[in-house]
Design goal:
Number of strands: 0
Largest sheet: none
Number of helices: 5
Strand content: under 5%
Distance between the termini: 62 Å
Radius of gyration: 17 Å
Helix content: 40-55%
Structural class: mainly alpha
Shape: globular
Bound molecules: zinc ion
Length: 141
């Protein structure tokens, strides 16, 4: 052990999301969370929007292959399993995109306050990259 508290001022931790890797400055986390405000908003929006995208398109925004649908369920289920295991709550049944995202939304504050928050945010943002679509074909007129 060494004493750092008296010499080094406590710095607010930086957001750990991969989205900031190529940015000159990584934002600080929002107090009480392990993510910055931007990432927290994106996580929340993704959880809200993802089910609608399934209803409308039958697949996630950026997916070009059918198997991506099951990938999304796998990713969502994996994080639900973390909540189930550590909070002792029942898992959503059946594990549909709608129920899984709703479940994660309920437990979002808990998930985003944990050390794995950045991993959670990155997983979700990978599923919902409408804003980053290269061909700009996010809207079908
Ligand atoms: Zn962030």
């Amino acid at each position: 052990m060494y004493h750092v508290a008296s010499k080094v001022p406590l710095e607010t931790p930086r957001c750990g999301s991969r989205r900031h890797l190529d940015k000159p400055r990584v934002p600080e986390v929002r107090p009480g969370y392990q993510l910055c405000t931007t990432c927290l908003d994106d996580v929340e929006n993704t959880l809200v929007d993802l089910p609608d995208w399934y209803v409308e398109h039958g697949r996630p925004p950026r997916a070009g292959l059918d198997e991506v649908v099951s990938d999304v369920v796998d990713v969502l289920s994996a994080w639900c399993a973390v909540v189930v295991a550590q909070r002792g709550v029942p898992a959503p049944e059946p594990p549909t995109v709608e129920l899984l995202t709703g479940f994660l939304a309920v437990h979002m504050q808990w998930l985003t306050a944990r050390p794995t928050a950045a991993e959670f945010a990155d997983d979700l943002m990978f599923l919902d990259q409408r804003d980053a679509t290269a061909d700009g074909s996010e809207e079908v007129a």
